[in-house]
Amino acid sequence: MAPVLFTGATRMISADAFLGPARERGFSFYTGVPCSFLTPLINRVISDPALAYVGAASEGEAVAIAAGAWLAGRQTVVMCQNSGLGNTVNPLTSLNHPFRIPTLLIVTWRGQPGLKDEPQHALMGRVMGPLLDTIAVGHAGFPREAATVPAALDAAERAMAAESLPFALVMEKGSVRDDGLDQPAQPARPRGRIENLREGGARPARIDLLRCVQALAPAEAAVVATTGKTGRELFTLEDRAQQLYQVGSMGCASAMGLGIALNTTRPVLVLDGDGAALMKLGSLATIGAHAPGNLIHVLLDNGVHDSTGGQATVSPNVDFAAVARACGYPLAFRCDSEAGFARVLEAAVSGGPRPVLIHALIAPGSLSELGRPTIAPHEVARRFRAFLAD
User: Fold this and answer.
1) Where are any strands of DSSP class E within 33-94?
2) Do 333 and 359 touch, CB atoms closer than 8 A?
3) Per the domain annotation, does 80 fall within a domain?
4) Alpha-carbon span 66 to 60, nearest angstrom
5) Do 169 and 201 belong together in one domain?
């Protein structure tokens, strides 16, 4: 994107002039992090009962939520300012790109050359176009006239269909008229409970708990495994169409699981790790706020970064069950044995309050001969999407 001097143009459209044609093309699931330039669009999305909006704790989390929603069959839109674009680089390059998951990005152009803006936006305002080019995200200007909205959406759809990758519409200041906000009140929910099944004995191996997952997970359940050895061990035990093995995008499994859970009635099991959960701890707050009644969040905590040599995480100082409870999960379990894990997982898949967190303490280490998925990520994604649609 070549730098364009801000002209102070007053052309703008109503939010509905964009959202209406986008909805007709199937774009009905929105997520993101607010920006003042985006205020009119986000407010109208929130106010429209025909559209779904998930306010994310971070821009990277929003990309992962949208990826999950796409896997569940939705056409998605992620909205953020360009300063937050930096937070999306990891999932855009290590989740959307290898899995070939498209999403429409609406990114504001803060720090646009010629526009007086805050100093923290100056650098990103200059480099945003080259950055999008570098990470293989096609882009064009956000329409400022109602008559040009269909052409802008046509171009975005063509690019996403051709590459199966995200495409960005870059929004300048004052592009959309603010028509106010009609936001439903958030329901107050009672504080959840914690059940402690810890025994204090020798901790089980991750592979043993993954065997429990494969034995107890319903055939119709969707299973999302975090990056690293969790997904590799799950694949090694048995490859299944119901399983998605994340590569890269560390910390994004729970957000992806949320995006899936909000768009399917199937049970959704997220197999998370302590290092990954700590990286995007805000996702627990988003899950707790939206409270999908089909999400089972399993956190396998060995206290180390197992894939990179066993460096310690800070998880011994974190009470994940208490965090989940504080974030709005109605139920959280603590366990440290294979029998205890099997007991609580069986209870979780059989019903009861959800979302539920199962914080399982496990031993460090993995199989000595550990393979990797032999199916390409984009093939895993499409197989998984077909499974969800079946």
Assistant:
1) 52-55, 75-81
2) yes
3) yes
4) 10
5) no
